[in-house]
Amino acid sequence: MYRLFALPLVFLLGCPASVTAEGMDDGFGLGWSAVWFKYSSGEFDSEGITLSNVAGLCEKQTAAYEALEAFYDKLEDVDADDACSEIESETREFYGSWEALYFEGANYASGGPTDEMDDGDYELGDDAYFGVISYTNSPFEGVLDDFDPDEEIGEGCGIDDEEAEIEAEEWSIQDGELVIDTVNDEANVSGSVEGEMVQKGDEEGAFTASFTAAYCEIEIPDVFDY
Q1: For the packed helices 88-99 and 57-77, what is the interaxial angle rounded to 10 degrees?
Q2: Which of 96, 97, 182, 211 is deepest in the core (most CB within 10 A)?
Q3: CA-to-CA distance for 25 and 132, rounded, in angstroms?
């Protein structure tokens, strides 16, 4: 019974973004997430709009950075002889949170004005930028299969970092414009973007998107201080 009603619900509620990317062989997919990100760190702040076929993007990015900070916090206090067993929980949480973001078929379109987020028309490549990235592998899937709590931390607790190599296709959006219709401070921003998908200098197809992006602030931990 649930499955009969779940699919029509998608069309009744709609998605936060509508994306057409003709340069992608398999298309962009449904725009489950449209997020106005503001990233805050001790060094600088930045903001931009991200559209994705990954649902719950704000929550998943928040969880990923929290897991990153928890991992380094734990790493400060472990006994060197038992480090791998002591950080096992944090390690699994860390890899699991990033696996939820970066996997085969995860698509992201992101950009914004080069200056402050404000309503107006922005020419891409001049006073705004936008690009698309499509992940073609699941770099974190299975990485923890080799985790060994009895291994030495200097040996990576049995994990081979090379297994987590990210593979992706990228396009820049050129010869178009980003239009910001409304900006509601710390609430949402709505607008549209259109242009040509360009990869290695070649035009691959038209890109169009419309969105209402919800505000999401992310605190980036300064792990290099650990």
Answers
A1: 160
A2: 211
A3: 13
- Tokens 């992608």 locate to 24
Smallest Cα–Cα separation from 28: which of 15, 39, 38, 37?
Answer: 15
CB of 46 closer than 8 Å to CB of 39: yes
- 147 vs 161: CA distance, rounded Å: 11
Give the closest residue to 150 by CA, choosing from 87, 225, 198: 87
Those residues with Cβ within 8 angstroms of residue 162's Cβ, 6 or more apart along the chain or in another chain = none
- Do 67 and 97 contact (CB within 8 A), yes or no? yes
From its phi and psi, is residue 68 left (phi > 0), alpha (psi between -120 and 50) or beta? alpha
CA–CA gap between residue 114 and residue 175 (Å, rounded): 16
CA-closest candidate to residue 174, choices 126, 216, 106, 219: 126
**pLDDT digits 0-9 by tens, 189-215:** 999 999 999 999 999 999 999 999 999
